[in-house]
């Protein structure tokens, strides 16, 4: 028993030492083709030392010295220490007259793939998953033996399907006819753009059977890819809709309910974004940096709400019932706010970093990645909407706001302090604009002109939905978000935007009261 | 009959002022600029000629805006678009006049060579003819305003709604003109003009001629607008502004009046744009930005809505201040402009003219 164990250990040690000397030497000193063949040879053995040797070459740590029998001896040199690339033994003292083994870009690319493939054999699941993802984006044919070896050992359900696909796509390029047909059938169940490219190439294969199989498989792949694209489009539409909704919700209160044409609405969004930036600066360097958003949300609401209330008290209050004058005065306010931000923070954009939990995304289909930042904004928009609805329908302030909107005189008669309610309502709308700014700072540039880009859009959403209708605003935001994204997929972003604007203009002319109208019989409204 | 019209437009004092203005534009300025030697203290440099020419173009736009906003109560935020369209039509002619003297020495404008286009798009048809370009200057803004206004006024879009959708129209047009594929030079628009009607565009004589033509158009527009607002048509416009429903119930079709004045106003803007482009030497989609259109409204508001002379004064005051600030204190210009918007709407609803009249009334 003991001897058996010893033999086993020895054979492991022997295997460890048995990295192909000839291949290593070729790798270091050979011609371009020899070197690339050497990489394949080293990878096929799947030796643990292969990774070290290959990365040494890629990192520029490989050097050669004259050996005993005329051949070059290959060393891995890090700083003042050197090890023999073949045996892994320490070499002391450092030999003189070493030459660098230099890898060109093509070799480097090959090594990168090879290193990823070697990771497939790692015992760590995470490492293997990463390797699979890297190889799925495109792998070298020479890696096929290694991939197959890894496939034989792989049991994890999260990795195995992708690995099978990689193996199949590699087998597609080389291998016997039977192997290729099998590979094509395997690829048919995949939904990655890579397989589509591979199969599209195979459709023109000289072999008729392969052509037939490839055509069949290509149809299947295209069908499933189309679903992925549709899902991606759907998500993009909801995402844009939620952004529009956030930008327009505040306006739905100040314009929709109160009737104030607030051209400075975009600048209130901008103030929210800058507040987020300021909070982020405060949190930088502390261990709680990832949680700065939790503080930024109330801060941006409070900041914009305060600015909004100050505006209402000082300027807008005197212009109620004169919408065109309000438009001009608030435009003036917006110009001053933009210039104020330029004076305070400079004309350049400021950098707002995403917290760690919002970077990255989840992959629902191959090639369709939903970023966490977008998902968070959709959820955030829903929360803000819910909060606003609760506030308007379940609180005393909400009751007052609705009362003043419907009949100001009657509300005043029953003791509602209409003036104060106006201020609070305007503050609420402004605060929600601030929340929008906080959200937008996570996905776009934050600069003094941030608000200008949203002012036309937010007015369009509110007008399209029907002034005075919160539900209309929600529907309008989603409809416009979808319309924009669907048009964008076949006409490009700018044309899509123009078409949507023109559509709204025509729609308003056909139906000036918007999608959802307040019923009334007034001639002048 | 003719004397009647004369006395209806202005009193004797008004006509004298008008004559003085014409004298300044057609005699004093050309003499000071061309005949007086450059080292004399009375010489007017080409910088001033260009600046004043530019401001006169703006004054024409302000008149157009006043006609529709001050007299008819419709705040259009699309006037920047009509102005730019007129400018683009003129720009196309000027681009064709460059001929083979562009950087690429091609018959096509430089930006088309740059985009690797082989022939002119259909929109450029006949634009090397001056008369055709002038037709476009008038017809494109006029037609757009007519079609847009027809649908908007017919479905009784009014007040702020009208302002917002005209703003959306301007914004959409700006996006369209920013595209290279639209065929109007994209981001950079048109520039590097060489000559107009065969005259080199940069010489002091050509500049003076453009200045004088602009002055003539401004004075003619002023008279025309004055004629219009003192006529029965003008009375109806004012009535539409003050009580549209009542006018409609009296049997007037208010849509016709509003449509006519909107289209006329757009055409005047287009002409102003066409005069503006050869003087400043550039036109790009930035002119269509919604901000520019709103600025036009503030010129009129500063001067005084519903008084034609106020519109001209407002355009002069605001743009004069703009030239001063953007040179002396560029960072304070937006503060000043913003404050102007707020203070004028809050405290000067009648504008400068209203203020002057009030002071005069007190003095008398």
| Helical content class of chain A | 55-70%
| Structure class of chain B | mainly alpha
Main β-sheet of chain A: number of strands, strand sense, barrel status?
4 strands, antiparallel
Largest interface: A-B, 45 and 44 residues
The CATH architecture of the largest domain in chain A would be Orthogonal Bundle
Which value, in Å, is the CA radius of gyration of chain A? 33 Å
Span of the ends, CA to CA of chain B: 34 Å
Instruction: Compute the CA-based radius of gyration of chain B.
Output: 21 Å
Can you count the beta strands of chain B?
4
The main sheet of chain B orders its strands as 1-4
> Secondary-structure element order of chain A, as H and E?
HHHHEEEEHHHHHHHHHHEEHHHHHHH
Enumerate how many helices of chain A there are, as a single number. Answer: 21
Strand content of chain B: under 5%
| Mean pLDDT reading of chain B | 91
Report the biggest beta sheet of chain B as strand number plus sense, adding barrel if it closes. 2 strands, antiparallel
Enumerate the spans of chain A where pLDDT stays under 50 for 5 or more consecutive residues: 8-17
Q: So what's the oligomer here?
A: heterodimer
Strand tally of chain A is 6
Strand fraction of chain A: 5-15%
- Count up the domains of chain A: 3
Task: Give a verbal description of the structure.
The complex is a heterodimer of chains A (525) and B (364). With 525 residues, chain A is mainly alpha-helical. Chain A folds into 3 domains: 16-107, no CATH class; 120-206; 229-510, Orthogonal Bundle (ABC transporter involved in vitamin B12 uptake, BtuC), CATH 1.10.3470. Chain A is 68% helix and 5% strand. Chain A is built from 21 helices and 6 strands. Chain A has helices spanning 2-17, 21-29, 32-45, 48-59, 105-119, 125-136, 144-153, 160-173, 177-188, 193-202, 208-257, 265-283, 292-314, 323-345, 372-394, 396-406, 408-413, 418-440, 452-465, 470-491, 493-510; strands at residues 62-66, 72-78, 81-84, 99-100, 361-365, 368-371. Chain A has a 4-stranded antiparallel beta sheet with strand order 3-2-1-4. In chain A, a hairpin with a 5-residue loop joins strand 1 (62-66) and strand 2. The longest helix of chain A has 50 residues, at 208-257. Chain A starts with a helix and ends in a 15-residue tail after the last helix. Mean pLDDT of chain A is 82; it is low at 8-17. Chain B is mostly helical and 364 residues long. Chain B has a domain at 45-296. In chain B, 72% of the residues lie in helices and 2% in strands. Chain B has 15 helices and 4 strands. Chain B has helices at 2-9, 12-35, 46-70, 79-98, 110-114, 130-154, 159-178, 204-230, 232-242, 244-249, 254-280, 290-303, 308-328, 333-347, 351-363, and strands at 190-191, 195-196, 199-200, 282-283. In chain B, the strands form 2 sheets. In chain B, strands 1-4 form a two-stranded antiparallel ribbon. In chain B, strands 2-3 form a two-stranded antiparallel ribbon. In chain B, helix 4 (79-98) packs across helix 11 and helix 8 (204-230) packs antiparallel against helix 11. Chain B is globular, with a radius of gyration of 21 Å. The mean pLDDT of chain B is 91. Chain A binds chain B through residues 261, 263, 315, 318-319, 323-329, 331-336, 338-340, 342-343, 452, 455-456, 459-460, 463, 494-495, 497-498, 501-502, 504-506, 508-512, 523-524, and chain B through 75, 148, 151-152, 154-157, 159-161, 163-165, 167-169, 171-172, 175-176, 178-179, 244-245, 290-291, 294, 297-298, 301, 331, 334-335, 337-342, 344-346, 349.
